[in-house]
Design goal:
Elements: E1 5-10, H1 14-24, E2 30-36, H2 39-49, E3 53-56, H3 65-75, E4 79-84, H4 89-97, E5 102-105, H5 110-121, E6 126-127, H6 129-149, H7 160-170, H8 175-182, H9 186-200, H10 205-221
Parallel strand pairs: 1-2, 1-3, 3-4, 4-5, 5-6
Helix pairs in contact: 2-3, 3-4, 7-9, 7-10, 8-9
Length: about 220
């Protein structure tokens, strides 16, 4: 990542894009390199411009922010912050499962937005304080359920490479990062991830990561 954080803004309202651009441009270490008004254009521009961070609205006409987030994080090195007015548990969960590195409400202050961009660009994750408590409580509850019931699959049925991919999924790596770590193509990573979905019955990338953590803990206990 360059010293200046390069940002793309995706929102179907031009006034919102302009306002967000004006706010983050007050930081001399942030450069707005592009804008998009729907999910498809956001993906296209991220592939073309390779920004460090994309600020993506979750609700846009046609192809929405969840659709865009999954493709951006799988096909580029761009890290995604969802910037929206919606705070429902379902949308937050879907966005994080799609690979979002941050989730902010549009009520966040300019300072909070700028800090979030820098944090995510530095490979950290950001959650709006208004939703963080709910997200953490939900993850803790699901983790406790998994401890109580055990893993819903037999890890012995995995290939060695599938185990490697699952372990890196547990660390929150994107498909591209997994490919670089294992020296395999993104297409091959997607094939392994697809096999893991089939063998585990996982419904999201977050759940796959949780299974990976559980499998890792089980190996250490042996």
């Amino acid at each position: 990542m360059s010293e200046t954080v390069r940002v793309l803004i995706a929102d179907d309202h031009e006034t919102v894009r302009s306002g967000v651009a004006a706010i983050i441009a007050t930081d001399p270490q942030i450069e707005v390199v592009g804008q998009a008004e729907n999910g498809f254009d956001a993906v296209t521009e991220c592939v073309r411009l390779q920004p460090d961070v994309a600020l993506v609205d979750i609700r846009m006409p046609g192809t929405d922010g969840v659709w865009a987030t999954e493709r951006i994080t799988n096909e580029t090195a761009t890290r995604v912050i969802i910037l929206t007015t919606y705070d429902s548990d379902d949308l937050v969960a879907r966005a994080l499962a799609a690979g979002a590195h941050g989730y902010l409400l549009k009520s966040a202050s300019g300072t909070e937005l700028i800090h979030a961009v820098h944090h995510v660009a530095a490979h950290r994750h950001v959650l709006d304080p208004a939703i963080a408590g709910t997200v953490i409580a939900g993850l803790n509850a699901r983790q406790q359920d998994t401890y109580m019931t055990g893993l819903p699959f037999d890890a012995a049925h995995f290939t060695t490479r599938e185990c490697d991919v699952l372990d890196l999924l547990a660390d929150g790596l994107t498909n591209q990062a997994i490919g670089e770590q294992l020296n395999i193509s993104v297409t091959t990573v997607k094939t392994h991830v697809g096999a893991l979905y089939s063998k585990t019955g996982a419904e999201s990338r977050v759940q796959l990561g949780q299974f990976g953590l559980q499998a890792r803990q089980r190996r250490r206990a042996i």
